[in-house]
Amino acid sequence: MFSSFTKAIIFGVVVVLPAFSQAPPTNFQNEQTRPPQGPQLVNKIAAKVNGDLITLNELMIKVAPSQSVLMSRYPRRGVAFQKQLNDLKSSILDELIDRAIIFTEFKDRVRSFPDYQIEDEVKRVVQNVYKGDEQLFKKYLKATNLTRDQFKEQQRKELLVQIVRAQQFGDVAIPKENELRAEYERWSITNRDRTRDIGTYRRIYLHKNRGSGPFAQLKLAEDIVKKLNNGEDFNDLAKQYSNGSHAEQGGVWKGVPRTDLAMEFGTLLFETNGSKIMGPFEDRIGFNIVQVMERKLGPAKPFEKVREEIQQRVISDKKKSNYQKWMKKMRARAVIKKML
């Protein structure tokens, strides 16, 4: 039987899609339980750019991981969820359109990349997105009806677009050392080894099948969040209400590797800042209220090993204005038709 993600990819149905992730860990489930209120059939073409098609499949594959995080953040879905989801789809579609414009202009260069370079890109995706799990990557390929060679061709196009975007549009001053260091600090967060992220957090967990059922438990979770935001003690409330295995420890989970967490929870834990109360988040079994106590982010490559790359990033950033002007002209002469 097809999964909901596979059905959406194959039949062009817009549904709320779960992101691909590892087998459910013991301390946070990664499946969502609330189904959408009936799938909606839509045109399988998301946009046309200079005669080339951007399919709904392409769009939804890009949307799925972030959509899954939104589902966790909005267990009741509602207007705010739908607005963020629509904004997400629109933003990603615009990005796909820009990529298509660039590719149609420069596609004669796409064969200039050696196969080993493309294979390195694929390995990087497997490591960064699928935590080095080849079997998980194969599940993704199967669900999206892609062969590994087809995926490599996608990466070949992606690399072309990246290189074209990185091209210099006008002369700028050579970056200073302090500019390089500041950019490295930003780069090191985005390009760190996420498989080595470790976090300590507090968590109150409410099972859906306790009390009067799921809706009552969600209401209770929302009331607990209000109490926490009004200054009540997390430790006391965890002991009083949490159904989690660490309730007696005040809901504290110490030194948890990101690899032990579901993709959605890992994103919420490590791609945010501060220690504000977050939730309630929904998973397959219940609702989660979380407060991050400490984040130890995985390491990035040392500055000296990536100095040249960082310098190019600073130069590219300085030329962003020129690039945007260039892209505006490209859009103006392209034939674009959005179908959504």
CATH architecture of the largest domain: Orthogonal Bundle
Oligomeric form? single chain
> What is the global morphology?
globular
The level-1 CATH class of the largest domain: Mainly Alpha
* CATH fold title of the largest domain: Triger factor/SurA peptide-binding fold
Instruction: List segments where confidence is low: pLDDT < 50 over at least 5 consecutive residues.
Output: 1-43
What sequence of helices (H) and strands (E) makes up the elements?
HEEEEHHHHHHEHHEHEEHHE
Total strands: the figure is 9
Q: Report strand %.
A: 5-15%
Distinct helical segment count: 12
Derived structural class: alpha+beta
Structure description:
The chain is an alpha+beta fold and 340 residues long. Helices cover 51% and strands 14% of the residues. The strands form three sheets. Strands 6-5-8-7 form a four-stranded antiparallel β-sheet, sandwiched between helices. Strands 4-3-9 form a three-stranded antiparallel β-sheet. The longest helix has 29 residues, at 78-106. The two termini are 29 Å apart. Mean pLDDT is 84; it is low at 1-43.
Descriptors for this entry?
340 residues, Chitinase A, domain 3, alpha+beta, 51% helix, Triger factor/SurA peptide-binding fold, three-stranded antiparallel beta sheet, globular
Provide a quick synopsis of the model:
By secondary structure, this protein is α+β, with helices and mostly antiparallel strands. It has helices spanning 4-11, 56-73, 78-106, 115-129, 134-143, 148-166, 177-190, 214-229, 234-241, 263-270, 303-318, 320-333, and strands at residues 13-14, 40-41, 45-49, 52-55, 198-207, 252-257, 278-282, 286-296, 336-338.
